[in-house]
Every structure is written in C-alpha cells, then in structure tokens.
Amino acid sequence: MMGLAATALAGCARGIGSAPAPEVMRAAPNPDWDRWVAAFRVRAAQSGISSQTLSRGFRDAGYLPGVIERDRNQAEFKRSIEDYLAIAASDERVARGREMLQRHRDLLRRIETRFGVDARIVTAIWGMESRYGTHRGDIPVISSTSTLAFDGRRGPFYEKQLLAALRILQNGDTTPSRLTGSWAGAMGHTQFIPTTYEAYAVDFTGDGRRDIWADDPADALASAAAYLQRSGWKTGQPWGLEVRLPEGFDPRLAGRAPRRPVAEWTAMGVRDMDGRRVPDHGPATILLPAGPQGPAFMTFGNFRVLTRYNNADSYVIGVGHLGDRIAGGPPSAAASPPMRRG
C-alpha cells in the first residue's frame, strides 16, 4: 500500500500556511458522470458492495466541478526549510499543541502506552494535518472520489478510494452525511484517505466504530499511532535533531541513504547545536534540505517511518520539530535564516 502522505501529497496538496477558506463545492449536472456511476455500480456490486450501500452512498452524491478545478490547479511551489519550519512550528501552532497535549493528556498517554508512539509526535501530526481538528474537511467523500475517478487522470487510484469509502459505509463506521473530507478524500482529524483508513484505523473508544470524524479525536489519534506502529516505529527513538557540521564536510555524504553509525558521524566532527556529541540512537543519516549552506539534520529510523505519512523531508522535519517544541524544546536555528554552521 502506498504511504498515506505520498497519496495525500499527490491528491490533496495539503499546506501548512494560513487557515484555508471554506471550500464551497456545489454539484453540477453531468450526464457523462451519471453514465460512469451507472457502470461503476455494476463493478462495485461485483466487488461486494451491496445495492443498499450503493443507494445510500450515491443518494445525495453528485459531480463536483470544483474538485476537478482544484486537481488541475494545484500550486507547484517550494518553501525554504526555514520558512517551512517557521510556519509548521509557529508560536500559535506550538501553543495550541501544548494546550491539546495537556487537555488530552490521559488519552494521549493511553495511546502512547498501547502503540509505543510518543504523544508529542501524535499531537504534532494532528496539528499539521488538521490544525488540531479545526480543519477536517466538509466535502462529501463519495462525491469527491467519484468525480476524480470519473475524470480519469488518476482514475484507478480514485476508484479504489471510492470503493473503500463505500465499504466504510457498509461496515457501519459512519453515515453518508458524515463521510466528509478534503476535496481529494482525506478524512478526519488525521486526514486518512479511505484505503489507509481501511488498513490502519482503530476503534480506540470501543464503541464498535472507527470514528475519525467525531469531535472526540480518540479514534483518529489512535489510528495515526497505529499506522506509525505498523510502519515500524521504534519506541524511545527520536526522529532526529538539528546538528552542526564541520568545516569541509562533504555534502555528497548527505541524503536518506546510506545510514551510518552515529560514531562515524561523530568522528567526522558532527555535533549537536550546542557542540556536544550526539547520543547514539541507531544508524543515522545527514539531511541538507536547503543544500550545503543551509541547516543540517541528523535523522534516525523513525524519520523513515514518518515518511510513510508524508514522503517530503520538510514535512517530516516539520512534524518532528513541532513535536519537540510542543514538549518544551527550543526553536530551531533553521527557522531563523540566515543559518550559520560550523
């Protein structure tokens, strides 16, 4: 299965900037979509979707031209890592994260105990994905995924998402009116696409439903932790940290591979931002997201696990740094350019 974020980046183009305006998506008549749905219903029935589920799912569904417009006009731009971290771990997002960590401390402690994923990381993902539940998305998922499947640009992928969404309804986890998300089908507090929901969502409250849409974030946060756990999360291992590189460091040694023992990096002169030796948390890599003259990060195995959620280095560094800040850590020097190393 594709990682959640790899598909989310391709499909949802979620950003970390200012809060988005409400997305008004109005259905429009489209006879071609109607014919496509009629043919799809046959395929769905052959895949085990009941006629009752199909009727319920499509009763109020429609073709959403706004979804196609968003899909065609995703902004292609890159923020510098400095700008990205300044936004990802803004004072407002950090303060809100600390508030949420305190407010839900018992829940997050139980999630951490069960799945072994640090509560601050779960909280940081929550903050990055939906601003702590305040931007969960209100677009009907059956309409959005059927529109994108019909459009055909990524038809097979979105037909899989549509089938998964219908199975979610068939299993009774939610209702058609509550099955909402982003314009590309990412759902709930932690923005799971339907196939990822099917594979990893958990019923943490024990009410018989895996409800990631509820105001109560328990199932959604536990599902994010379960996803990371099953992706190989190592309890107690940090994602990484910002480091200082020695003068003359060969930038060709940087990158996600190969990983080297911390002792090797130490022997080369790599130190933490206070000039101390980096503790050994297992094989590590050095990342230079802004090139040789920019900030440097040493990353461990859990960094790779977080890329399952979103494959962009900046996203993972952002989640890790936001988690560190939520836990009381200092601001990153990388968020205050120009950055000096050595």
Task: Report the helical percentage.
Answer: 40-55%
Strand order of the largest sheet: 4-3-6-5
How big a fraction of the residues is strand?
5-15%
**Rg result:** 21 Å
Which architecture of one domain does the CATH hierarchy give at level 2?
A: Orthogonal Bundle
* CATH superfamily (homologous) name of one domain: Bacterial muramidase
Q: Pairing-aware structural class of the strands and helices?
A: mainly alpha
Cα end-to-end separation: 41 Å
What is the CATH first-level class name of one domain?
A: Mainly Alpha
Average pLDDT: 91
Uncertain segments are 1-15, 17-22, 338-342
CATH topology of one domain: Helicase, Ruva Protein, domain 3
Query: What composes the largest sheet?
Result: 4 strands, antiparallel
Could you walk me through the main structural features you see in this protein, from its secondary elements to its overall organization?
Helix content is 46%, strand content 5%. The N terminus and C terminus are likely disordered. It is mainly α and 342 residues long. The chain contains 15 helices and 6 strands. The two termini are 41 Å apart. Helix 4 packs across helix 9 and helix 5 crosses helix 15. The protein has a domain of 167 residues: Bacterial muramidase (Helicase, Ruva Protein, domain 3), CATH 1.10.8. The strands form 2 sheets. The protein has a 4-stranded antiparallel sheet with strand order 4-3-6-5. Strands 1-2 form a two-stranded antiparallel ribbon.
